[in-house]
Amino acid sequence: LVERMRPFGTTIFTEMSALATRTGSINLGQGFPDTDGPAEMLAAAARALQEGANQYPPLPGIPALREAIAEHEQRFWALPRDPGCEVVVTAGATEAVAAAILSLCEPGDEVVTFEPYYDSYAASITLAGAVRRPVTLRPVASGRYGFDEAELRAAFGPRTRLVLLNSPHNPTGKVFTRSELGLIADLCRQHDTYAVTDEVYEHLVFTDAAEPHVPLAGLPGMRERTLRISSAGKTFSCTGWKVGWATGPERLVSALTRVKQFLTFVNAGPLQPAVAVALGLGDDYFTGFRDELQARRDHLTAGLAEAGFAVQPSDGTYFVTADIRPLGGTDGIEFCRELPERCGVVAVPTQVFYDDRAAGRHLIRFAFCKRESVIDEAAQRLAKLG
Ligand code: PMP
Ligand code: GLN
């Protein structure tokens, strides 16, 4: 293994899912739903398999899916895209993030991102020979997560190539506010950097969130410098399909595609038409899915509070974080390793997503993208902790 990849062990998701299987625990660690997505989408995939859509799709994705992605982006975010040259289909958001970084960063370039960060970010930045400049999110007075403006300003410098922003944010459930996005956009313009936005949870912002989701690409001067990334996995409960995409100005999409063609070339031939169908579903699908997840968030949040955790409010995503200190915990890794034995539930320590480990030492993440009955059972088990 090359030296620069040696610090990266097995991902925490793999470790914790294996622990859940070994101990027969309820897995609220890895974020994947335990029910299938919309029936229309599943039927379209079955049809495509039977009707012979089983060979390589075109490099940027099948036209029907690129058109559906462009229409979706216009419909929900008022971002016009040319499906002919401003949209590319990828093997999940993960590949899109990797290809974006690999196509934009020279060795030694710096990437500003917020920690805790999604685990593939650090690995992709390292693979590119680039350097991460994390800005720490911390619980602030509102009870939500915030960051220090001076720390963000200081993270930008002459080597900054891009900002990698995830909002709604995994694992904190934070939805970046318009004023925070405005500051990020100002800094991108001032330092003439790119932005790569990971918006895989774009449809999972709850009705009581402090602010709605706003794509950074929609802010003044940002469209021409931003690659916007999303994925079918979260919105349509098909995380195993690995169908994602990136949209942006032609020069950035074509740079990303140049790299992407040598990572996977193409993927998911028979699933692409099905995702096109899903993206075209009526608004009631998207709001219904959000409402369902919101009810589960409320249910799990109540269970965690009852069990004695200090729960951080989650405005979006599949996740809620909790402070273990009221339960006498000090180290999230230790706490999560012992949790299955103590009560038969698996969670994920978020400190592994920080460079500044002390900042996240006492925080752990629970996924609520699970059936009501599963959350109910988990809440009952967690109640035994107190
Ligand atoms: N980004 C974030 C913030 C995520 O939470 C996830 C999935 N958990 C991904 C990217 C990966 O998405 P995909 O499975 O489409 O590669
Ligand atoms: N994105 C999922 C999560 O945050 C996990 C994906 C993975 O296992 N790499 O839980």
From TrEMBL:
SUPFAM superfamilies (UniProt xref): PLP-dependent transferases (SSF53383)
EC number(s) stated in the UniProt entry for this protein: 2.6.1.-
Required cofactor names: pyridoxal 5'-phosphate
GO molecular function: transaminase activity
UniProt keyword Transferase, yes or no: yes
Residue ranges of domain Aminotransferase class I/classII large in the record: 26-382
Alphabetically ordered keywords of this record: Aminotransferase, Pyridoxal phosphate, Transferase
Pfam family for this entry, one: Aminotran_1_2
Protein name per UniProt: Pyridoxal phosphate-dependent aminotransferase
Species the sequence originates in: Paractinoplanes hotanensis
